[in-house]
Design goal:
2 domains, alpha+beta, 7-stranded mixed sheet, FAD/NAD(P)-binding domain
């Protein structure tokens, strides 16, 4: 069996979908990118590209393009209301050349889209996948073009393989593959603000008050639409059940903002740009564990395969590394079968994905919960760990996205 010039459908034009489409198109496969939205208009706050994700972008020849829209991040810093340092994880603990990159989600999408635009591929926008039917030698997608209703057009297309990359809430995953799928009880309100001192520094900064209050500020570079305006992403932790009520009670906004500035007085100049609750967008997160990430001729990558809490900031990085690993596996199995591709892919990705899912699940309650003593344990334990060189290095490896297991890491 030959896996050269395969007809491959990729469902979802997010980070994972755009990246894997580019890599597979470069291998001369017949790539079709299918996206439900009518245009690429990514919605979301800034994100932190870790050294692991930047390494993939470099291998794709896109690191320089990404750097022009990003803000260099040298460390993750977290303190308490009393300004006691709880976390200070520096990339320099691994290598003086390592750093992260704070970026706007739209900028990452733009760079990946530009990379894909240079390759031969088909792109079907405003198209919804209604069903996936696998046969012995092909996969049939039932599609709906356009909005639902009388104007919608339904048809079917056959492919040699399909990659599901349409996010954490995907309904296309086979139920037989899903081991666990739930929404985290805590999410965040976020907003993109013009950068202001003293937060124009290469740090992701967080402030904690117990485990129930967390503020985050991430320098997020700029966007292609306005490259001269430096931006900062603002995050405010909140239980999901309170989000709707918060947006429906604008009279509480001024009181909330006063509370926010009391928690972090230095942030007052930055937060002056927040004038209404409508500027704050709710974000929720899922915890998704699959038994495996592929079967037959259908694979699952990115958040659709392994959604996790953003506590370790690994979502986009995992998506990029999935795309890179899958492209390597397909190139290696060119004269084999799709079963060979998935075996190689699982071998490359299983250790890292399982480690980060477990760590995210363990860490999230000490930053976002009302568990008695959770914040206290964090405030005692993290500074102690930071004093031990081996643990400090392990924390840096974890943040950088290099861990492949509890006692292993990428070189």
């Amino acid at each position: 069996m030959s896996l050269s010039s395969q007809r491959i459908a990729i469902i979802g034009a997010g980070t994972a979908g755009l990246a894997v489409a580019t890599l597979l198109a470069r291998q001369q496969h017949q790539v079709t990118l299918i996206e439900r939205a009518s245009a690429l208009t990514p919605v979301g706050a800034g994100l932190l590209l870790q050294p692991s994700g930047l390494k993939v972008l470099e291998s794709m020849g896109l690191a320089q393009a990404m750097a022009q829209y990003g803000a260099r991040i040298d460390a993750l810093y977290g303190d308490t209301l009393s300004q006691r340092c709880i976390m200070h994880s520096k990339y320099a603990d691994l290598s003086p050349d390592l750093h992260g990159l704070g970026v706007h989600r739209a900028s990452l999408c733009h760079v990946l889209d530009q990379g894909l635009a240079a390759e031969s591929h088909q792109r079907w926008m405003d198209t919804t996948v209604l069903a996936i039917t696998e046969r012995s030698n092909e996969v049939i997608l039932e599609l709906q073009r356009g909005a639902s209703g009388s104007a919608a057009v339904k048809d079917q297309h056959a492919f040699d393989a399909v990659l599901i990359a349409n996010g954490s809430a995907s309904t296309l995953r086979s139920a037989d593959l899903v081991r666990f799928d739930r929404q985290y009880p805590w999410g965040a309100l976020w907003s993109i603000l013009p950068q202001a001192a003293p937060f124009d520094v290469p740090l992701l900064q967080q402030r904690y008050h117990g485990s129930h209050t967390m503020i985050g500020l991430l320098p997020s570079g700029s966007t292609p639409q306005n490259p001269s305006q430096a931006l900062t992403s603002f995050f405010w932790s909140m239980p999901v059940t309170q989000m709707m009520q918060w947006h429906q009670s604008p009279q509480h906004f001024d009181r909330w903002k006063e509370q926010l500035i009391k928690l972090w007085p230095a942030a007052a100049p930055l937060l002056a740009a927040l004038t209404s609750p409508q500027q704050l967008i709710p974000a929720t997160y899922r915890d998704v564990i699959l038994k495996r990430w592929a079967t037959g001729r259908v694979g699952i990558i990115g958040d659709a395969a392994h959604a996790m809490s953003p506590q370790l900031g690994q979502g986009a990085n995992m998506a990029l590394m999935d795309a890179h690993a899958l492209a390597l596996a397909l190139a290696s199995a060119r004269h084999g079968s799709w079963e060979d591709v998935w075996a190689d892919y699982h071998q490359q990705r299983s250790g890292m994905i399982r480690f980060y899912q477990t760590m995210s699940r363990l860490l999230t309650p000490i930053f976002q919960s009302r568990i008695p003593g959770a914040g206290w344990a964090r405030d005692i334990g993290f500074p102690l760990m930071n004093q031990l060189p081996w643990l400090r290095r392990e924390m840096a490896l974890t943040v950088a996205g290099f861990k492949t297991g509890w006692l292993s890491a990428e070189p």
